[in-house]
Design brief:
Oligomer: single chain
Radius of gyration: 18 Å
Number of helices: 9
Helix content: 40-55%
Number of strands: 7
Number of domains: 2
CATH superfamily of the largest domain: Vaccinia Virus protein VP39
Shape: globular
Structural class: alpha/beta
CATH architecture of the largest domain: 3-Layer(aba) Sandwich
CATH class of the largest domain: Alpha Beta
Strand content: 15-25%
């Protein structure tokens, strides 16, 4: 098990909803029906907004036959995608998250969603997709692996299909000292463990955060024939972008 997988196995087994949305209300010992309702509504609201972007700018009456949700977690976003798709595939690295995703799909009466264990090559995922999606996931994957996964997902998108992929690319909030401290916590796990012990914090792994080079991702899109791209900025502590694109070649300028 690699380091990143061990982090998400921990949260999948111990604090799955907090692993998706790191606020106190999502902690397992705080979670109640009201918090769960807010949690799943946020997924529905997000997908409704994304669908509006797709239908307004790329494909009116968009109805994908097959959809892929990479980093599905407990299926907060996979379920509303499945409602709008013929079939939805959720992929995650955490067995605990996948187990809960299946349970949530059953409880919501979603019968067209399948959940698959992920790896760096998405080797268990087969076929092409009309929609590929990932939100607040790549930021937790080292770009050395993440760029490869990004490319694999784009390759799985069928001609004429739509991609919605989110990454973070800049940190304009933290000071240099804060950035160095987080780097030490992220890349030297013993430092973070000692810090947690000294401060009396929970003995849990740090959720890693990474920034991506947008130039490299744009090159992947261009070389794979995704010539119509829309950028929507995001803010989850640091600056990010949601890249919404269609796999359709066009004449270059």
């Amino acid at each position: 098990m690699n380091d990143n997988e061990s982090v998400w196995e921990y949260f999948g087994e111990n604090d799955p909803y907090f692993g998706v949305n790191t606020i106190a209300e999502m902690r397992s010992d705080n979670l109640d029906e009201n918090a769960l309702g807010v949690f799943f509504k946020s997924g529905e609201d997000y997908v409704a907004r994304i669908w509006g972007e797709i239908e307004g700018n790329f494909s009116p009456d968009f109805r994908p036959k097959r959809s892929l949700d990479f980093g599905c977690g407990v299926a907060r976003i996979t379920l509303p995608i499945a409602k709008r798709s013929g079939e939805a595939i959720g992929v995650d690295i955490s067995n605990g998250m996948l187990e809960l995703a299946r349970k949530n799909a059953a409880e919501f009466g979603i019968g067209n969603a399948t959940f698959i264990k992920g790896d760096d090559d998405l080797s268990r995922v087969t076929g092409k997709f009309d929609l590929v999606h990932s939100f607040v996931v790549f930021q937790h994957i080292d770009p050395k692996k993440g760029e490869h996964i990004f490319k694999r997902i784009v390759e799985m998108l069928d001609e004429g299909g739509i991609g919605v992929l989110h990454v973070e690319y800049a940190n304009t909030v933290s000071t240099t000292a804060q950035k160095l401290r987080f780097w030490a916590y992220r890349d030297l796990p013993l430092v973070y463990k000692v810090r947690s012990l000294i401060l009396g914090k929970r003995n849990e792994p740090l959720i890693p955060m990474y920034l991506y080079d947008l130039n490299r991702l744009m090159l992947i899109l261009q070389t794979h024939g995704c010539h119509k791209v829309q950028v929507r900025f995001s803010k989850h502590g640091v600056e990010g972008v949601v890249l919404i694109f269609k796999k359709e070649r066009a004449e270059l300028y």
